[in-house]
């Protein structure tokens, strides 16, 4: 008789300790390496949120946040029964009593955060002013003009039946995936990723070819030239037909197909 293995549990106590003790190392350990964070506040509006890609960049963001003179308290945490999602409410207070409420929605896989969306609301009535955050690489990059040649990537990562061309721009990463007929993630990239499913969330424009996407929940569809797709963590994909697939990926290319 076979038994079903349970998904590793999300460590709520580590989350509480990391937030309330401003322990960046503990917080950093809760994120998958290819995690994505989206922050919406007064400065970064919903139409142009602050996007942070990769656990390393998220760690830098958290380090700056924890360096501020403020108290943090985790007020409520809810984790879904299947361990795939969580939400929490955090209250922060500055010495002048300015209060910030932050609510976060989390996508989880194997007990780690793969995607986080954080919404912040600031208390203006106390008379306190929001301190300006230290400039991030993305913020500094946004102050200058960049003009890249799309035929000259900063890095090329090769794998079976394809390659990922990586471009560093605007403090972030854009990827162009070139996938030849016969390519399949579970055969050509899975050995590099070391995970059962592709854990990189994607926001992609499909330039050419047709690719079939199979989600971990059984959902399956074909994406073709001219389509836009937004894929959460947990999927497989493969090329359909004899035409090379080319996609431009604004999310998920940071660590895609990196060699261990």
TrEMBL record:
<protein>
    <submittedName>
        <fullName>Nuclear transport factor 2 family protein</fullName>
    </submittedName>
</protein>
<dbReference type="InterPro" id="IPR032710">
    <property type="entry name" value="NTF2-like_dom_sf"/>
</dbReference>
<dbReference type="InterPro" id="IPR011051">
    <property type="entry name" value="RmlC_Cupin_sf"/>
</dbReference>
<dbReference type="InterPro" id="IPR014710">
    <property type="entry name" value="RmlC-like_jellyroll"/>
</dbReference>
<feature type="domain" description="SnoaL-like">
    <location>
        <begin position="12"/>
        <end position="115"/>
    </location>
</feature>
<dbReference type="Pfam" id="PF12680">
    <property type="entry name" value="SnoaL_2"/>
</dbReference>
<dbReference type="InterPro" id="IPR037401">
    <property type="entry name" value="SnoaL-like"/>
</dbReference>
